Amino acid sequence: MQAHELVEVESHDDGVVVVRLNRPTALNALSQALMSQLADTLEDVQRMPGVRGVVLSSTSPRAFCVGADTKEIATLSRQQFIVANRRGGEVFQRIEDLPFPVAAAVNGYALGGGFELALACDARFASEGATFGLPEVSIGFIPGWGGIRRLSSAIGVARAKRIVLTGERLTAAQASELGIVEHPIVADPDAAAVEFIRSIPEGRQRSIAITKHMFSRIVNEPGSANLETLYMSELLTEDTYDV
Prior knowledge:
- This protein is α/β, with parallel strands linked by helices.
- 46% of the residues lie in helices and 16% in strands.
- The strands form two sheets. It has a five-stranded mixed sheet with strand order 1-2-3-5-7, with helices on both faces.
- The longest helix has 20 residues, at 78-97.
- The radius of gyration is 18 Å and the shape is globular.
């Protein structure tokens, strides 16, 4: 695996991989360099044998991630911004599409693209001091990396619309009450996220990958198409016959 300055990787013997954003002085603002290194890291992890799941975390106790690097954005041409924005959406979709579970461990701020990053994960664990929000509208942008769809899927369109349009910030307790993060709030999100990955059965990678794929399809397909996908997926799930 390549060494990256802005992303740290910790591999456990049991197949759990912890990926930490490492730009603490900027509260892990997602510069193009950080986004590129995160994409490369995810690609490396996906090629690793025996991975059970990934914990996405931060080296900073102050922030999980505060979203896009607005200072960098101000220097980009329109075309450069379009390319960078599309790249961000692709990276977050890759996280959602990974064939194993991904859990976010959130300390401090998860704002804008940082909240969207957490929403791209399969589960989220937060400390008491965590704060969530999508302030993009207030600065003339929109949540452009899949956050609207994923938040709406998690808590319903009406509540998601309120959070996005008002820029409302949620405490960890409020996010837990809405079902955005796991209950209860934890002292050590990293440890809780690792334990979540370990709670998922070993040796059923194919079933897990197809199940994740099915959940992703649910929000984008009509019911009849969902049923057809389900039927075909059952045929592909060889693990079913190992019970």
